[in-house]
Amino acid sequence: MSTLNKFAEISLLAGDPARAAMLNALMDGRALTAGELARVAGVAPQTASGHLGRLLAAGMLIVERQGRHRYHRLAGPEVAQMLETIMQVAAGLQVPAKTFVVGPKDQALRAGRTCYDHLAGQLGVAIADALVREGYVELGCDGGIVTDAGYAALGKAGVDVAALKAPAANQARRLMCRPCLDWSERRPHIAGRLGAALCTLALEKDWVRRIKGSRAISLTPGGRRKLMDAFGVAL
What we know:
two-stranded antiparallel sheet
């Protein structure tokens, strides 16, 4: 299939409201069953199975089997990046109401959320700002580097720096870090292997907690202090 035809196929798949709802539900990086995705999309299980089959065939989703259950997740960060970009464009094209608000209306999502496997929203942008300001990260238009001071700070905070520098085979081609334009803040947060490592650290250390039924996250009081101490994040 030519690149143009594949582009048209992906656009068509992502453009269906039910499939868009399913893809959005998977943007927090977790895997969901067909039944859970059917409820998210508001469609019958049989209809959901058809949608999921098309997304799987196109390579936008993958399936993980655990016993009798099948769990669906986004095929990778490239799919999540595409969806985040579509959300950004959609927000910018919204017809203004009496008061124009950029980005998601849900204040919890604006405050903090997961963008596939990294942190986004006001929290994600604040972390990116702090890492750059403290000289821990240098960001360009399409990528970035972690400085020696940055690796030292990450290691002190609890990140496995050796694994970050020498990733597993399935992550080897992924950039260390890159700016990802946040669709609610219109400023970059950090994606790539570094973004994933920071998100994992924050969840494991209970700096942030997932909000049930949403990809929004809440910052804990301890997390606020730890982010300030570790990286100079001011919130």
